[in-house]
Structures are given as C-alpha cells and as structure tokens.
Amino acid sequence: MKRRSLISVTAAALSPGPVAPRHVDPALIAYFQEQLEGHYRADMLLGPHDLIGTVAAQYELIDRLVRTAQGDTRRGLLRFGAAYAALVGWLYQDAGDLGAAAFWRGVTQETALRSQDAQLIGYSLVNHAQVRTDLGDGYGVIDLCQAALEDRQRLAPKVWVMTLQQQAHGASLVNDRTAVDRLIDEASGLLGQVDDDLPWGNACRRTPGYLEVQRATCYGRLGLGREAGALWLQVLDGVPLTARRDRGVYMARQAVAAAAAQDPDQAVEIARQVATVAVETGSARMRRELAGLERAMRPWQDAPVGRDLSEVLAPVVER
Fold this sequence. Notes:
single chain, globular, mainly alpha, 319 residues, 16 helices
C-alpha cells in the first residue's frame, strides 16, 4: 500500500492523544446509534466511496470521546466505536480495498475486546472472516468462525447466525457442499430467535431471503449452476428495486449461475442490467462478480454471445 494511501486509511483510527479532559454526556450514545442506523440505510442506496469519509470521521470522534468518558458512558461508546469501525471496514471491502478493510477489521476487534462485550468480540471475528472469504481463504474463514463459536452458549442468536452462515462460505471455498447445507440449515433454525436490540449486524433481519442469499452464493462457488439459479430467482423476487447495489450483486451472481447452467444468452441479458448499476454505484463487489462472469463465459468467448458480453462489460471490468 502506498504511504499516502496508508495515511488516508489509518488517520481516523490512529488519531494521537491525549485529549483535553471534558464531560461526555451519556446522551451521545443515542446520537451515535441514530447516526449509525442512518449510515446503514445509506449504505444500501449509495456506493461505498460516498460514506467512508463520513463514517471514519465519526469513529475518530468516538475514539476521542472514549479517552475521557467514564463508566457506562465509556463502555457504551466503545460498543458503538466497534460498530462504526466494522462499517468502515465493510465500506472499504465493498470498494475493493481489502488491505484497508483488513486494517479496519483489526480496529473493530481491538475496540470490541476493550468493550469486553462477548457479542461484539464474536462479531469482530466474523468481520475478519468476511475479508478472508474475499481472499478465497476457505480454511482461514473456517478457523475464525470456529474461534467465534468457541463459547457459543454466550452468543446471542444473531451472532450465532452470522457466524454459521460465514462458515458456510468457508466450506464452499473448500468444496464441501455437505457442510454448506448443514451450516445454513442450522442458521435457519436459529433465525426466528433473533430478537435483540443490538444496532449492528442486522442484515439477517433486514435482507429478504438472507440465508438463501448465502446458500445461493455458496452454490455458485461450488459450480451448482441450476441450483443456484433457482435460488436467485426466488431471492430476487423479494428484493426491492430500491436496494440497487445488493440487487446488482445478486443479479451478477445469477448471471454466473446461468453460464454454469449452459445458458449464455440469459447470462448476457442479466449482465446488461447489472453493468449500469455497477458503474453508477462504484461497487467493487459487483465488478468482481462480473469479472467472474467473464471467466465463466470463456467457452463462448469467440461466439457472438461472447462478443456481446465483452461489449457489455467493457465499461465495468478492468482488463
């Protein structure tokens, strides 16, 4: 990572102290919670580049307040600091900067450990596992998820669900379909028990067909085109058009599944719709999925449908 880039990534997390003593009003905890919920909503509508600076700056403010806050106020700020750091890490991951994402996942874990909150510590390990998933390190994903589940009886059902589904992604990376289905099914049995008021990690509640999204993604990695395609049809039927970025990622994966199922014409038709969203949102996840589609379509690269795909992806996929 170039020095200038490194400084821009770390500046908000490594602000030097000490800071001048000040009274920290407990009402700030509710303020940061409201702001966090707004950032989650904005994340569904905007590209990551528009939010990284804002969320990182708020993490920096929380970090400075933690240095002078006392008692329950300090612990509450630490919990929200971990949630903000996790969101910054996610935004960098969505922007395709895995080095920055890994750095902020480390900040998340440090802050979670300082909070002594078992739920946040488990959540921080799942955050690390997400980066390992994007790196294609299946055994690394499994190791981190097993560490999170070491004391599973202390975990809230939501953290348990998040960990199990992420471990399924690790299983798919090591070609273990049996484990994928077992882990997703186990998570499905816990989903109805998710009833906490924790402000972070709520994708399992707000994402339509959350666990079937994970299963379809895992099936796609396993090369199960027809099974994955059927699941994507089911999932996309429940995803609102306003959730443009998530919908675009899912459709890109659906296109890969169509290619694996030997239906290149459908794959190209889906890609036409995704390419526009990928350009508008700047989502590296979407570009990465479309690059995967290009690889899946290599058997047809010299056919008219292959040339059509190259034209569709020209503005999106880096050569």
